[in-house]
Each structure stands twice: as C-alpha cells, then as structure tokens.
Amino acid sequence: MKPCPCGSGRFFGACCEPYILGASIPSTAEALMRSRYSAYVVHAITYIVDTCSKDGKDEIDVKQTRDWSEKSRWLGLKILSCTQGGPEDTEGIVEFEATYEQDGLKEIHHEKARFKKQGDRWFYIEGNIVPKTVIRSSPKVGRNEPCPCGSGKKYKHCCGNASKPLSLQS
Q1: Comparing C-alpha atoms, which of 89, 107, 90 is closest to residue 98?
Q2: For residues 51 and 124, is the Cβ–Cβ distance under 8 A?
C-alpha cells in the first residue's frame, strides 16, 4: 500500500484512487482538488478532463495536459486555504501549491482554483495563477557604482553592459 500523492496521510487506495477510478465521488472541493493532483501524478488524464466544467472541457488542451503530467516528477501538494467548498456548499475556492520538477528545474504551481457543485458532483471551473513576487537577496547595483565582480570598472561598463557577451564582461 502506497501513500496518496495528495499528501493527506492516507493510503492511495483509501483516498484519491476510488475517485480516479470512478468508484466514488469527492464530497468537497478540496477532495476534488486533491484527487486532481493525484491524477496528474498517476497520469489519469481522462479524470482531469472529466472533472472540468463543460466549458473547461471544451478549452482543455489534452495533449499539453498529458505532456505536463508525464514529463513532470510530482513532489507534493500543499493546500493553503479553502473558502467554502464543503458538502453543503455549491461553490468553493481552493488555494494550493503543487511542487514538481521538469527538465531538472523545481517549480511551484501556485493557484487559486474555483469549483462548482452541479447536482452531487464538484467540477473544476477555472484557476488563477498567483504571481510570484521576486525579492532581491542583495541591494540593486546602480549603473555608475563599482561592479560587484571586483573588476574596478563601473557596473555599466562591466557586468551591466547588455551589449557585451557575458564571457567578455570581466
């Protein structure tokens, strides 16, 4: 028995697998989100498509979805927040981070996903990517300041010179 990829702490067979196989349906937006993540991990593209709203099914690029699923090494899911989306609700928002590695680069897909319940089933409606704020680890170097590489030249005439190839900037 293997742990569920969604990070719930339960076994896959008792967590997301029954949803992916169609043996049961998720009762909350978060459960659907977790099962969709697990579907990416196990490459169950049909489940991903089937859990999209009708409009979403028309817009999904199945080949691109399959490529992302298969070419990524999925590292984990972190649920950041849930707004509504319970068994008695008809709409919900799940904010999450899905960490994966592709082509040797570690990426974090941070999204606020919107879900809607139609009848007794939850569907993924849309997701909005949460932009990543880049924070400098050191102060910005001014164009006329000494270059931090130690050459003694002004930054604009050294490493800050965009017209010079990097191999010639020292």
Answers
A1: 107
A2: yes
How far is 157 from 94, CA to CA, in rounded Å? 49
Q: Give CA–CA dist 109/123, Å, rounded.
A: 20
Q: Is the pTM of this model over 0.85?
A: no
Sheet holding 73-84, edge to edge: 73-84, 91-102, 105-118, 121-129
CA 134 – CA 27 distance, rounded (Å): 37
Q: Are 112 and 84 in contact (CB under 8 A)?
A: no
pLDDT digits (tens, 9 = 90+) for 12-67: 999 999 999 999 999 999 999 999 999 999 999 999 999 999 887 888 999 999 99
User: 97 with 69: CB under 8 angstroms?
Assistant: no
Question: If you ran DSSP here, which 8-state letter would residue 3 be given?
Answer: B
